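Cont'd.
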Amino acid sequence: GAVVSQHPSWVICKSGTSVKIECRSLDFQATTMFWYRQFPKQSLMLMATSNEGSKATYEQGVEKDKFLINHASLTLSTLTVTSAHPEDSSFYICSAGIGVIRAGQPQHFGDGTRLSIL
Amino acid sequence: SQQGEEDPQALSIQEGENATMNCSYKTSINNLQWYRQNSGRGLVHLILIRSNEREKHSGRLRVTLDTSKKSSSLLITASRAADTASYFCATGGSGYSTLTFGKGTMLLVSP
């Protein structure tokens, strides 16, 4: 149980392209999903917290207009990297908590999306 | 800012040996969790220990927590090649749902 599907797993595209990444909870409802960015051999950096039916909460330093987050249903959150540039190349990972998330609740992760901008 | 700091950064052992990873954190916590990440994949939750617990076991995993020292350790006993992965500690505070991850320990278990 508690499976999170992330799609696509790998994207290579030209600079200036917008890329949408989907994160789905397959067998549970997720009021809250999280989006992380991970550079090679480094830790996860929280980008934003996505709440169903409301605006996402972005971490300091993360551009809201650059990384658009939509959480339109209890099983789907999307991250759109707008006008992507080479510096946006990274590994993006989503996670979700089951139901209405509680403080410090374990998160269930997707398999990540490797984004490469040429 | 990063909360957890794991050490060592990398650990190489032989199958059958035990692997110990440590995590230190800075502020008060509600709980501490350990996750595993296989190369190029997402994270898998391994175990959660609450701030009022000192030790917890799950299969070959043993986690300790010392809130006075703001530190935790993860012990993997009788390691297997399949345990090769990066291991991260993550702390959850009270009152908010986000987790803060440490830098991780890369574990290599050789057959």
